[in-house]
Amino acid sequence: MVHVARNLAKDCNDLIGKEVLLRGWVERTRTHGKVAFFDLRDRSGIIQITAHGELAPKVAELSSQDVVEVKGVARARDEKYINPELETGKVEVHLERQNVISKAAEMPFDMGGKELNLELPTLLDFRSLTLRHSKIAPIFKIQEAIVEGFRKASKELGCTEVFTPTISYSSTEGGADVFRVDYYGHKAFLIQSPQLYKQILMPVFERVSLISHAYRAEPSVTTRHLSESIQLDCELGFMEFEELLDSLEFVGTETINHAAKAHPDILKNYGVEKPAIPKKIPRLKMREAQEIIFEITNRDVRNELDLGPEDEKDICKWALKEHNSDFVTITHFPLAKRAFYTHPDPDNPEFSLSYDLLFRGVEILSGSKRVDNYEKLSEIIKERGMNPADFEMYLQAFKYGIPPHGGFSFGLERMTMKLLNLSNIREASLFPRDMERIDQRFSVKEK
Amino acid sequence: MVHVARNLAKDCNDLIGKEVLLRGWVERTRTHGKVAFFDLRDRSGIIQITAHGELAPKVAELSSQDVVEVKGVARARDEKYINPELETGKVEVHLERQNVISKAAEMPFDMGGKELNLELPTLLDFRSLTLRHSKIAPIFKIQEAIVEGFRKASKELGCTEVFTPTISYSSTEGGADVFRVDYYGHKAFLIQSPQLYKQILMPVFERVSLISHAYRAEPSVTTRHLSESIQLDCELGFMEFEELLDSLEFVGTETINHAAKAHPDILKNYGVEKPAIPKKIPRLKMREAQEIIFEITNRDVRNELDLGPEDEKDICKWALKEHNSDFVTITHFPLAKRAFYTHPDPDNPEFSLSYDLLFRGVEILSGSKRVDNYEKLSEIIKERGMNPADFEMYLQAFKYGIPPHGGFSFGLERMTMKLLNLSNIREASLFPRDMERIDQRFSVKEK
User: Where are the domains of chain A?
Assistant: First the structure.
């Protein structure tokens, strides 16, 4: 590998007294007569550039987001100018020469502040600009670390990472919320989840993990749903219910923990605590959770068929208070509320061997033990009004020897949102897709 | 984590004399009167189960792909029965009890041989069965390792791993080969590549890597194209042409090398050599490559606007012979043959700052330095008959300060195919998509 002479912002800490060559973006400029400053951002961080004497007026020529090349000498800052909030806060670069590589147009809003106080539509309309902000870009560093944590944990479980298609012949979960694709004149759908494929792979690899896109054409706008999202999936063969619960709690907590440990500075900047993870995550059947909610809030949800958003918040508060846990596992949801491949609870077939993992007030993971009998599965598909012929390859796997198995999946954006306490899931997606927008809003595009 | 008492096949090597509990699939059975054998497969490998005396007839009840639980005692094999080809070839398990967990239907073809000699349509029609075969499943272990190698190498380059959408408003590369999606009544496409998004992210992360799906509605059936494929992408800011070439050769060779080193046994089973990677990968301009092809084969392709499949093979033969290299980098393709965002060669604008990396006779990676000027880019989009309004967010990135940059992308299935010398790219995809099939062939489905 050839290494060019360029230095990164954070390298300057170790280059005091040396000449440096930096390249990056102008973040903000400040001029005070004979001395002027600007903050230069590159992929390693931010560094202050200081211009003295006749060079000071040159800084006034720069504007936010200009791409510049800077030559100068790294110097220790005066004690009184040290910035403890910056990784390079003890150093600055005394400008010798600057060169604009790419001139930016005038900013449509202030990009120089610590916060980017924009309404969501503006935040998304100018996505290629707003993503650069030092409060926004780190969201996706956390996201990267979540995926790393997931891969590490699922690998520890013995999973093979696989790659499955997104264009499918059948709709995974039934229902009308599917996007249709014109596939060489044939009908096809975008998958609602990679569920069927990961199950087919049980007799191949026994344990698989995958990172897939998932598509839901939900005709509604909420703060926690996207039309296209990234799903982190595990499916595990030869596992019974208890071991599945152990596994999902292992992967769920390790994933979040890995991300939190990788970037304590980002958590701090977002004002969020590192996750509370006890040795044993509290586990409740849905009916038990509803009882507890009734006891602590007097809200009677004991006959509801599912937990609502309010319920999820309340039971998470309880878990934090009683078990010092930011996580709580809820099991045994009513069978009718879960996908067709969900295994009924043998002790009470109205309920199911299903589970959700809640984190800080919201479900981040969902899954179940699966039906693993060919005849039963074919029957269920018919009962739910679907056609077994649309599930031919899936059913084939069950016909030729399939082990007991189960699995779970995370929503990547959902996890990112909750870990950083963002108010809308769109903030946790680089380029969010919803019914109102593909990059630009439809109303704007179709003018 | 709770660990159940189950043992894996390969653990038996260390459990001689001990009682073991195994779970897995029956691969093949052999009975010889008072002694019978079967091979049991689990995620760790294969182990021989031996049944003596009154247990021997029980083995005859088993058939291929039955899922069984086996209790027995691990024993060292007699010297003369040692199988050097098997990781557990020195050990066997003396059966005490067997239990069928899931009975398989009768096999439509022989699954017990070392090779699975099936025509491609059958291989794919019974994908959930054929993937289990011990010659087939390892293809996807190689694939997993290729992705691992790519992630490792791109991380070493300082890339942030990002996740970008597949539903888009504009067609990345122009042309008619796009799949249309009905997006809440609006027109939308499946991306031909994540190209536009990775460029938009240059001013955010400077260097990014991503693993994306890519869709091409090519109305043709070839041995090296899929309608849906996995693409491994890098995009690198502040890099000029030479450094881009260094980077792509670094990532390309490290990726392949990582996979080859991770699974020498699989390469051996496929009868392929480990890749020849010299210190310096040979680099040729396309015109130089054409000259060499003319010299060594007398085939005159010196006026062609691109390299054909035959040319790629010939120049790879040359690279292996002259440079002991399985890789060769070809640069400077005609500008008109490359995507709109390709940077022209300043010295000869009919050509471009583009490159392909060839591996063993086929292109596995393609890329270029990019146009990085807002006005020029808008112009080119118009010149190519596309509408700049369809590229609004992309162009926005260029308007507000973008660095010089370039990048490249690999086809995951293409790499897998070439590394194992498979004859058809469909063999390198778990569930391949082409114009004739989504899992089942259309002709079969629409009966």
Answer: 9-102, 137-445
Q: State the residue for tokens 């792909």.
A: B65
CB contact (8 A) between residue B182 and residue A180: yes
Q: Which residues of A touch B66 (CB under 8 A)?
A: 401
Residues 6+ apart with CB under 8 A from A281: A249, A253, A323, A325, A327, A328, A329, A357
Class of domain B137-445: alpha beta
Q: Give the integer Cα–Cα distance in Å for B183 and B160.
A: 30
Q: Taking CB atoms and an 8 Å cutoff, what residues of chain B touch A402? A: 67, 102
Beta strand pairing call for B327-331 and B283-285 = parallel
What's the pLDDT tens digit per position in B35-53?
999 999 999 999 999 999 9
The CATH number of the domain covering residues in A9-102: 2.40.50.140
Q: Of B104, B227, B238, which is closest to A401 when you measure between CB atoms?
A: B104
Handedness of CA A30, A35, A41, A46 (dihedral sign): negative
CB contact (8 A) between residue B128 and residue A200: yes
Q: What is the pLDDT of residues B324-372, one digit of tens each?
A: 999 999 999 999 999 999 999 999 999 999 999 999 999 999 999 999 9
d(CA B44, CA B10): 6
CA dihedral for A133, A135, A136, A141, sign (positive or negative): positive
In angstroms, the CA B360 to CA B309 distance is: 11
Whether residue B147 and residue A137 make contact (CB cut-off 8 A), yes or no, is no
Is A129 within 8 Å of A263 (Cβ atoms)?
no
What ipTM did this prediction achieve? 0.95
Cα-flanking dihedrals φ and ψ of residue A304, to 5°? -70, 150
Residues of A whose CB is below 8 A from B148: 161
Q: Evaluate whether B413 touches B434 at the Cβ level (below 8 Å).
A: no
Distance from CA of B2 to the nearest CA of A (A): 7
Question: Which of A242, A430, A438 minimises the CB distance to B167?
Answer: A438
Closest by Cα among B323, B440, B368, B399 to A188: B440
Gap between the Cα atoms of B245 and A19, Å rounded: 28
d(CA B418, CA A331): 46
Dihedral of alpha carbons A51, A57, A63, A65, sign: negative
**Hunting for tokens 């849906």 — which residue is that?**
B228
